Amino acid sequence: MSTKGHKVDITFRNIRHAFFQPCENDLVVLLHFRLKHAILVGPKKTLDIQVYTEICNLVDDIDSKARRRMNE
Length: 72
Description:
By secondary structure, the chain is an alpha+beta fold. It has a single domain (about 10-70), classed as PH-domain like, CATH 2.30.29.150. Helix content is about 25%, strand content about 45%. It has one helix at about 55-70, and strands at about 15-20, 30-40, 45-55. A 3-stranded antiparallel sheet has the order 1-2-3. About 0% of the residues are buried.
């Protein structure tokens, strides 16, 4: 899903390059795709798609769930 709520479908055949940046010195995991053919994201055509997520929020969520289970 894009930031504006548009669903984005990327087929494997359309990916020219894919880059993965792990969270070594940062709290963000990043995936970047360079496409062979442009796709529509909202009203615009694009060749580059970038997806990221913050890891610290996921770690906190898992940690808090584990603590709740141990206290039950």
